[in-house]
Amino acid sequence: THTTRAQRVPPGAGMASRKEGTGSTATSSSSTAGVAGKGKGKGGSGDSAVKQVQIDGLVVLKIIKHYQEEGQGTEVVQGVLLGLVVEDRLEITNCFPFPQHTEDDADFDEVQYQMEMMRSLRHVNIDHLHVGWYQSTYYGSFVTRALLDSQFSYQHAIEESVVLIYDPIKTAQGSLSLKAYRLTPKLMEVCKEKDFSPEALKKANITFEHMFEEVPIVIKNSHLINVLMWELEKKSAVADKHELLSLASSNHLGKNLQLLMDRVDDMSQDIVKYNTYMRNTSKQQQQKHQYQQRRQQENMQRQSRGEPPLPEEDLSKLFKPLQPPARMDSLLIAGQINTYCQNIKEFTAQNLGKLFMAQALQEYNN
Amino acid sequence: MSRFFTTGSDSESESSLSGEELVTKPVGGNYGKQPLLLSEDEEDTKRVVRSAKDKRFEELTNLIRTIRNAMKIRDVTKCLEEFELLGKAYGKAKSIVDKEGVPRFYIRILADLEDYLNELWEDKEGKKKMNKNNAKALSTLRQKIRKYNRDFESHITSYKQNPEQSADEDAEKNEEDSEGSSDEDEDEDGVSAAAFLKKKSEAPSGESRKFLKKMEVRTRVTLRGGLAPTTEEDKKAAEKKREDKAKKKHDRKSKRLDEEEEDNEGGEWERVRGGVPLVKEKPKMFAKGTEITHAVVIKKLNEILQARGKKGTDRAAQIELLQLLVQIASENNLGEGVIVKIKFNIIASLYDYNPNLATYMKPEMWQKCLDCINELMDILFANPNIFVGENILEESENLQNVDQPLRVRGCILTLVERMDEEFTKIMQNTDPHSQEYVEHLKDEAQVCAIIERVQRYLEEKGTTEEICRVYLRRILHTYYKFDYKAHQRQLTPPEGSSKSEQDQAENEGEDSAVLMERLCKYIYAKDRTDRIRTCAILCHIYHHALHSRWYQARDLMLMSHLQDNIQHADPPVQILYNRTMVQLGICAFRQGLTKDAHNALLDIQSSGRAKELLGQGLLLRSLQERNQEQEKVERRRQVPFHLHINLELLECVYLVSAMLLEIPYMAAHESDARRRMISKQFHHQLRVGERQPLLGPPESMREHVVAASKAMKMGDWKTCHSFIINEKMNGKVWDLFPEADKVRTMLVRKIQEESLRTYLFTYSSVYDSISMETLSDMFELDLPTVHSIISKMIINEELMASLDQPTQTVVMHRTEPTAQQNLALQLAEKLGSLVENNERVFDHKQGTYGGYFRDQKDGYRKNEGYMRRGGYRQQQSQTAY
């Protein structure tokens, strides 16, 4: 479902506005205001050594709120991230959502919308530099072609842009799940070439592990907010925190397993396809070989009879090279499987911990 | 236009001709045909009288008459057809025409036709009203006749100048012709034998000979005498018409319609009068004074038989003649031999009456046939010294020598078999919902009686082969009937009932079961042809099944090994096989053997062509796929309605047994990925039920079953019960069983048991333990039953639980894999196949060094086996062997 809107090209004007956008960081409520001045130059220089993503609490809340209000089930919500690069940090200070796309308003101009939004935000002195986008996910199934293409075009236009993946389901279980990803330089190269044939990928030495890289995230709040949080935490009842300790985990795990199974099926199919291709190519090779040999023999005979040899024919016309199946999809599937596996691993590890803890408690109580 | 009619003198010939036609037509004769009664030389001389010229001209005049008729009703299409025929006929008559000159009437029709067409052509109004075909024909005909008439131009002009005279001339000529041809009429009369026979049978038999003589001396005068008044009247009428005509001639166009009517009336009237005297004419069998001897009768018989099967032979007349011959033979005391011989032939020609296999006998024919066979049987029983048989050659027949045993060629069994087939055909072709069908069905008793008689006869005299055949006939008439008497007897235990009643029952005839047993055993022992034995076995099984003797029926089916090779049998046997299987299934159901019932019905029901497979009707769907021929063949295979098996009952039995099997199975394998459907049909019905946007109370039988299945899924046996057994379903299905109440009780119990199982499968996970008492209350089953059901489930490893005897509770074990575990197992399987596929790719790169990797693959498979749920059990069963 999330393929509909994912192909979102950041407006070319975004670059321009960023370059001229000088004093915009003044509005940032974060405590990092001090370094904002330095970031200006770096952002402009195009050095993409972003080692860390620093997200404002406000952004996190806005994303969560967006999903809560608009997303449901497998529906995903998306939006634009605003901020700027400071030294090796990407600071995300604000964001705004994309409206849910329906079939009715097909003439809805997304670029126009983005521009309008950013301009309006600028008027009220909010960061208006485009630094990426966010998307919610359903059980971590975000490694898709759509996301890849979308992120590629972002990164192509704005080097340091990232995609924030928000997992509402995990969050609902008690631990906020928000991750920042970007494409590896290698993958960027490949995507630029637009050649996803097996050979090209082999040459680029790309595996599913090297497709996306995760950038560490820091959530930054103002001191005032931090203080408030501490106070609130003290006040809150113990029971409110127990979500994290819930032992009823089977549903989540089952869902993950099911999704994983689906992907494994896809993978199987992909492999079968590739297998067929391989078989067909080798068959063709054989035929080609036979043809050449026959040709040679005939020419030999002709020579002995003193006739001119047959003209050379274009073999590639006779044997049209078969279209190799694109390998990108299987890479993506593999990547997705990897994500699932990690999810499950993480989840089970936590749960085992919980179970042992529970057991220990039980024994202690008895 | 109707000049031909109106000219006074020729109307006589006209009338006689039409009279002839009237008589000959109904019996299917035409002019070209040979008269049936070719008796003696008289005929030959007469034939000479009819010269080639007459013949040709008669042909022409006939055609002309048709054209005129068509002209009167303005049927131009018909005119065109006939005109073309006329042209051809004229071509044939060319040689005569060359000799005699062009006949006037021919010119007249040409001229009239042209006039007529021109009139029509100019009548724009009429042309508009004309239908398309006629209009088209009109233009074609007009062109044709123009072209054609060019050859006769001089004749036509002369005719037109002086139409009256030429008509008269022609009339005279025609009169001569008619006189000549009237002689032949006498021969044609032979075909009015029907009338003759009626008369004849009325007449006391002694007189019949005299009668024949009288027939002999009948003269042409009678004929003429009969015609004379008609002719005069005709003349008058015709004259009047001619006068009218003369008057009307100038304004012909306007008045023509009236005239036509008049003409028509006149014509009609004439014909009726003309026909009357001719009816009285009789055929004669033998020449006057011939002494009726064996030889003569046989000769006559052969003469009649020779005409058999020839084109144009009047079959009805042939039958009449043969019957006449029998009468003569019996009157002359020629002995039974001859009579038997002739009777054989009568029956044969009765069968021959319908030229077409598809059509069936008319009721009167059928009755005649039955009577005849009965009479024949009477004779055969009365005269044990008559031998009949197919193997007796014509030459070695002995029909008269009473000292030696009489030998007659002919096979009574074949006749009876044919009769039986005719009976089936009649039943097939009668609307099964009409009173007529019931009437016909009453004949079944007669058919059975005849077969029984033949059976008795053959048991004395026939060969084993023949006995087998007749036994099979008997079986075929017995196997499908439910023996209510025997059933009654079974119900009332013999020791309790009074002796006399029992005796009485026995006197009424042996049990059909005993009868079947006897007949079938004989066939099993003696039959040499595979087909009869197969049929007998199938019928036997059917009969067993019908009377709820399930184990006998099943054993017989299994012993016969018919299931293996039935596909090589011919379609009717296959249909019988299907019927038997279905009956077997229904029988199993009645016994409460759900699984067997399901298995037996599976093949028939899963195809969705039960109707076709049981020979109970053709499917519309495949109507396009087959041509006319195939359809006819299929139609002939249909089983008569009174043998039908109720299809709704069949489907209901199937669905209910599928429900009883499938619902617990589904509950047990809820989360199993490799679960298989037991019954596709049943699942289909369920899906159909699910697809309904609005679920009202069930109406049809299927809806009832679906609703019941849903209730059962929840373990709600009471609702399930109320859906399966209620007024509607009773009326539709259950009351059709002979022991409806017994079936219902069985069914309720089954529902209770299976609901209990389903309940345990579905809800065992939410119980730690459950008291058997509670279960027994819930499902209204007694404790031991609950105990046994649960024990069985535990033993079969369907339910992971144990019984706690002191507290009478079931303790659940929770060894069932959870949903996650199941998923994990599935995932493992999928990964296995993924790895396998992947390795194939690898193989490819490496080239195939099969061995090593293959071994590994096997390894994967083995692993899979462990992972699979059923793996453990499979291995166990393997080691058990």
From TrEMBL, chain A:
Region of interest (Disordered), residue spans: 1-48, 279-316
UniProt main location, coarse: cytoplasm
Molecular function GO labels: metal-dependent deubiquitinase activity; translation initiation factor activity
Residue ranges occupied by any MPN domain in the UniProt entry: 53-187
Keyword Cytoplasm applies: yes
Pfam families, alphabetized: eIF3h_C, JAB
Biased composition (Gly residues): 36-46
Keyword Ribosomal protein: no
Cell location: Cytoplasm
InterPro entries documented for this protein: eIF3h, eIF3h_C, JAMM/MPN+_dom, JAMM_MPN+_peptidase_M67A, MPN
GO biological process terms held by the UniProt record: formation of cytoplasmic translation initiation complex; negative regulation of proteasomal ubiquitin-dependent protein catabolic process
Gene Ontology cellular component list: eukaryotic 43S preinitiation complex; eukaryotic 48S preinitiation complex; eukaryotic translation initiation factor 3 complex, eIF3m
Taxonomic superkingdom: Eukaryota
Keywords: Cytoplasm, Initiation factor, Phosphoprotein, Protein biosynthesis
Residues with PTM Phosphoserine: S197
HAMAP family: eIF3h (MF_03007)
The protein's assembly and partners: Component of the eukaryotic translation initiation factor 3 (eIF-3) complex, which is composed of 13 subunits: EIF3A, EIF3B, EIF3C, EIF3D, EIF3E, EIF3F, EIF3G, EIF3H, EIF3I, EIF3J, EIF3K, EIF3L and EIF3M. The eIF-3 complex appears to include 3 stable modules: module A is composed of EIF3A, EIF3B, EIF3G and EIF3I; module B is composed of EIF3F, EIF3H, and EIF3M; and module C is composed of EIF3C, EIF3D, EIF3E, EIF3K and EIF3L. EIF3C of module C binds EIF3B of module A and EIF3H of module B, thereby linking the three modules. EIF3J is a labile subunit that binds to the eIF-3 complex via EIF3B.
Annotated function: Component of the eukaryotic translation initiation factor 3 (eIF-3) complex, which is required for several steps in the initiation of protein synthesis. The eIF-3 complex associates with the 40S ribosome and facilitates the recruitment of eIF-1, eIF-1A, eIF-2:GTP:methionyl-tRNAi and eIF-5 to form the 43S pre-initiation complex (43S PIC). The eIF-3 complex stimulates mRNA recruitment to the 43S PIC and scanning of the mRNA for AUG recognition.
Family, per entry: Belongs to the eIF-3 subunit H family.
Protein name: Eukaryotic translation initiation factor 3 subunit H
Species name: Propithecus coquereli (Coquerel's sifaka)
Gene for this chain: EIF3H
Automatic annotation (TrEMBL), chain B:
Post-translational modification remark: Phosphorylated. Phosphorylation is enhanced upon serum stimulation.
GO cellular component: eukaryotic 43S preinitiation complex; eukaryotic 48S preinitiation complex; eukaryotic translation initiation factor 3 complex
Function field: Component of the eukaryotic translation initiation factor 3 (eIF-3) complex, which is required for several steps in the initiation of protein synthesis. The eIF-3 complex associates with the 40S ribosome and facilitates the recruitment of eIF-1, eIF-1A, eIF-2:GTP:methionyl-tRNAi and eIF-5 to form the 43S pre-initiation complex (43S PIC). The eIF-3 complex stimulates mRNA recruitment to the 43S PIC and scanning of the mRNA for AUG recognition.
Polar residues composition bias: residue spans: 490-499
Segments of skewed composition (Low complexity): 8-21
Residues carrying Phosphoserine: S9, S11, S13, S15, S16, S18, S39, S166, S877
Superkingdom, natural source: Eukaryota
Molecular functions per Gene Ontology: RNA binding; translation initiation factor activity; translation initiation factor binding
Keywords: Cytoplasm, Initiation factor, Phosphoprotein, Protein biosynthesis
Biased composition range(s): Basic and acidic residues: 232-246, 854-867
Main location: cytoplasm
Biased composition regions of type Acidic residues, renumbered to the chain: 166-190
Source species: Propithecus coquereli
Pfam families: eIF-3c_N (PF05470), EIF3CL_C (PF26569), PCI (PF01399)
Cited PROSITE patterns: PCI
Family indicated by similarity: Belongs to the eIF-3 subunit C family.
Biological processes per GO annotation: formation of cytoplasmic translation initiation complex
Region (Disordered): 1-44, 157-191, 222-269, 490-510, 853-881
Domain PCI span(s) in chain numbering: 641-817
Location(s), subcellular: Cytoplasm
Protein name in the entry: Eukaryotic translation initiation factor 3 subunit C
Assembly: Component of the eukaryotic translation initiation factor 3 (eIF-3) complex, which is composed of 13 subunits: EIF3A, EIF3B, EIF3C, EIF3D, EIF3E, EIF3F, EIF3G, EIF3H, EIF3I, EIF3J, EIF3K, EIF3L and EIF3M. The eIF-3 complex appears to include 3 stable modules: module A is composed of EIF3A, EIF3B, EIF3G and EIF3I; module B is composed of EIF3F, EIF3H, and EIF3M; and module C is composed of EIF3C, EIF3D, EIF3E, EIF3K and EIF3L. EIF3C of module C binds EIF3B of module A and EIF3H of module B, thereby linking the three modules. EIF3J is a labile subunit that binds to the eIF-3 complex via EIF3B.
